[in-house]
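User: I'll paste a sequence; please echo it back and then give the predicted structure.

Assistant: Echoing your sequence first, then the prediction.
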Amino acid sequence: MSIINLKRKFISTYINSRGFRTNRKIVVIESDDWGSIRMASRAVYDKLLAKGYPVDKLSYLKYDSLESNLDLVKLFEVLTSFRDSHGNHPVITANTIISNPDFEKIRGADFNEYHSELFTETLKKYPDHDKVFELHKQGIEKKVFYPQLHGMEHVNVVRWMKALQANNKNARVAFDNFLFDLSEHHTVISEDSFVDALHPNSIEDIDFHRNRLFLAAKYFKELYGYESKSFIAPCYIWNKEHEDIFNEIGVELIQCGTFQLYPIVGKVSHFKKKLHFTGELNRLKQKYSVRNCIFEPSVIQRDTVVEDTINQIEHAFANKKPAIISSHRVNYIGFIDAENREKTLNYLFDILNKILIKWPDVEFMTSEDINTLLQ
């Protein structure tokens, strides 16, 4: 076995062996980035590709975009096709970004001021998105789509604005095409990458993050009518000062990826990696829940995606853990490339069908349900 596979096995064993345990067969699907912009359109994608920008090398640039009416309709069709033994549909915990950059106002201020708009305003600028927010609410009513807070924006505002002011070529090209990032990597953060919203460039940035997170919590409640009890940090990057802010805005459960990337202030590409486990408490008595399964067919393109996901769920259940599945929005988006969405939905249908056959006593839950279980 290779060193990489040994490391993966160790991490999986650590995550599944510690903390909260239950005999119940619980499946949670956590999906990040709803409400956030990414690739603006197929026309923009084709233009950037023709100019030599490697937008075809990163799934988040090749496929991801603000969710369209059809994206949600088709996703809900699959989810409502299944029910667990309690009559509950599979449900997407839709971790939502509340606002996006207002490109026109930023340009109008000659790049000296940052301006944003609620994602419900951004939707009005896209061609097939007029029913998206209403579909969000319908998904909540049908109990197949449950928004939670992912942040005010998915952009590192301070570093991005400095790059725009310095006339950074990639930053300006992206801006001119209504994007904020053209990086070839999603998990490798660099001076040319701006998706790490809560990565402090200096200690003063924490106050900026506090203001943005308080606004995010305020607008989230105004939009959806309830408070978000859980939170997932963009790119899994946050530190203990952010946990103080999460606590102040009412967050009780911190959703985690495999690692928390603990930022070193002022060092863009340097992090301390921290492992957590589901049920772990921090100094503020907030709980962590850790994703122990992966369903990311747009990002990890393997023919064995269904088998791999089922095996990970089985491993979680064997260790008496909820199966908490990472499945980003990019997998369900067909606005740029319809085939991307259709492939994922076919996989998802197959996975849900196999789950119900293999574990007829399965329970489909949200991250907020996990928060309640851990109390």
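The domain at 15-373 is CATH 3.20.20.370 (TIM Barrel). The mean pLDDT is 94.
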